Automatic annotation (TrEMBL):
This is Flagellar biosynthetic protein FliP. Belongs to the FliP/MopC/SpaP family. The lineage of its organism: Bacteria, Bacillati, Bacillota, Bacilli, Bacillales. The keyword Protein transport applies. It is found in: Cell membrane; Bacterial flagellum basal body. The gene is fliP. Residues 1-25 form the signal peptide. It comes from Paenibacillus dendrobii. NCBIfam families: fliP (TIGR01103), PRK12797.1 (NF009438). Its main location: membrane.
Amino acid sequence: MKKKVLLACIVLSVISLLAITAAFADPIPNIDIKVGDSGGKPSTSSLSILLLVTVISIAPALLVLMTSFTRIVVVLGFVRTSLGTQQMPPNQVLIGLALFLTLFVMTPTFSSINDVALQPYLKGEITQTQALDKAAEPMKKFMFSQTREKDLLLFMKYTKTEKPKTYKDIPLTVMVPAFAISELKTAFQMGFMIFIPFLIIDIVVASTLMAMGMMMLPPVMISLPFKILLFVLVDGWYLVVKSLLMSFNT
């Protein structure tokens, strides 16, 4: 398991590097410090470095939107909100769990990227551009399998993109946002289903307190132990994680 996690981290880092370096026609420029007046015009190297730093800063956000992380972290957030446990589990725990589940779900995709793009590039068999194109295909395949047709058509019509023959012909500028809103919709649907049993408990407790005339007693204080008890008895974390994993197999 440790080897798989390490491999996934390495693949993610290399994909980021390939995506960044592919944006430049020339190698990363050297930093040259000169004393004197440059005539008021910024050098090409300075602009390239500024662009490089900007791309590096947004690379993690792009990688998050291109994986299963979005759906997982949103659903886990719904679980905590529906329980009403405030900051329990803490954000660090939820984010850490979401990251490891993401690596688990994306392992087949990362392995494919490692075989077709990373290893040939490290051996010098293909160029940076070719490696980036080959690495994009497994990611497109994963995103396409989880993206709704309606969401794809929305961005294709807006960009006036011709109907592709296969998912390989869909540009990432169309695939990524369509995949992101599809993931959000799926996550909210799962979150709604999680909310229902806990909402019923809140309604029953609030109605009981009103019938007993205890209007000044907060219903949340009484319903919270019952919600936690229900969640523990049905092994809630197991069911939530199982539902998340099964949702990516469809």
